[in-house]
């Protein structure tokens, strides 16, 4: 894969609406608007965060950004391959002069409204299973759920013989059932993702080598996440060309001169600028099945 023909498509507006689309050719230059972004994703309950910057947005688009409950979806990649890399709620925005231009900085949190604003009051009869309780919490948050096979088995095996009642924030019910069943949850691009702790969300494996975009030599990490200096091995930090198809809790076959093996993506930082600089991912890879 070559690092050329950087493309993006962004949509800003109300969830479920048409919104304002950015990313196509603009003006006499035939170039899309300048964009830069830094997206941090992990397999934690705290929402993924992103900072996205645009230059010279129209007043109408800026007004759309400032609407209550506005969301931003961003697809980015190369040529016609533009996977979704960000979908989240706009928490703050600011527009300031930047030389002769005007720069708008947008802060985005994945699942912000779903976690913050969702409440539930339920009382299930005896015999309800953990997977049904989890689905009820997801429904109340307005989220579709992706549950790994291992997590699905654990949740299905949990049977509440005395029934299950809950009143409060939906995320608390979600935390309770996942903790009880040895699972973990996170929100990835607006989708609730549930896995058995330490396991991958899917058995599919992505190959990560020089031919598929691997950059530099992966750095060995210690337990505290720092670059290895003889300490206990925690995993590897791998940098590669922007690839939104590889997400948190996915499996990758890492192939390099330094290391070869299957690892799980624990976290990833996506950094991009369609005019200059980065268009890359930096992922923390750990051995699957380890504790979190």
What does this structure look like?
The protein is built from 5 helices and 20 strands. It is an alpha+beta fold and 292 residues long. The strands form 4 sheets. Strands 1, 2, 3, 4, 5, 6, 7, 15, 16, 17, 18, 19 and 20 form a 13-stranded mixed sheet that branches. Helix 3 packs antiparallel against helix 5.
Profile the largest sheet.
13 strands, mixed
How many helices in DSSP terms? 5
Gyration radius, in Å: 21 Å
Low-confidence stretches: none
Distance between the termini: 33 Å
Mean pLDDT across residues: 91
> Structural class, please?
alpha+beta
Quick tags:
13-stranded mixed beta sheet; alpha+beta; three-stranded mixed beta sheet; 5 helices; 292 residues; 48% strand
Task: Give a short synopsis of this structure.
By secondary structure, the chain is of the alpha+beta class. It is built from five helices and 20 strands.
């Amino acid at each position: 894969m070559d690092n050329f023909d950087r493309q993006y498509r962004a949509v800003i507006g109300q969830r479920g609406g048409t919104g304002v689309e950015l990313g196509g050719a603009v003006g006499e230059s035939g170039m899309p608007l300048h964009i830069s972004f830094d997206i941090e994703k992990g397999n934690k309950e705290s929402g993924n965060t992103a900072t996205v910057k645009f230059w010279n947005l129209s007043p109408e688009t800026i007004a759309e950004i400032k609407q209550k409950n506005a969301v931003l979806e961003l697809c980015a990649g190369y040529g016609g391959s533009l996977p979704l890399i960000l979908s989240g709620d706009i928490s703050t925005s600011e527009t300031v002069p930047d030389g002769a231009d005007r720069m708008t900085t947008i802060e985005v949190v994945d699942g912000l409204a779903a976690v913050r604003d969702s409440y539930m009051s339920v009382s299930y009869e005896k015999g309800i299973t953990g997977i049904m309780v989890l689905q009820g919490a997801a429904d109340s948050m307005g989220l579709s759920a992706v549950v790994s096979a291992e997590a699905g088995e654990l949740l299905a095996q949990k049977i509440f013989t005395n029934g299950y009642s809950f009143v409060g924030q939906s995320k608390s019910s979600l935390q309770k059932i996942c903790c009880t069943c040895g699972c973990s949850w996170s929100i990835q691009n607006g989708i609730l993702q549930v896995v058995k702790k330490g396991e991958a969300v899917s058995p599919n494996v992505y190959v990560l080598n020089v031919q598929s975009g691997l950059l530099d030599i992966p750095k060995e990490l210690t337990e505290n996440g720092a670059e290895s200096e003889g300490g206990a091995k925690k995993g590897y930090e791998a940098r590669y060309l922007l690839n939104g198809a590889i997400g948190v809790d996915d499996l990758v076959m890492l192939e390099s001169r330094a290391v070869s093996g299957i690892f799980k993506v624990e976290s990833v930082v996506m950094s991009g600028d369609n005019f200059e600089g980065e268009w890359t991912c930096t992922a923390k890879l750990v051995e699957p099945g380890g504790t979190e």
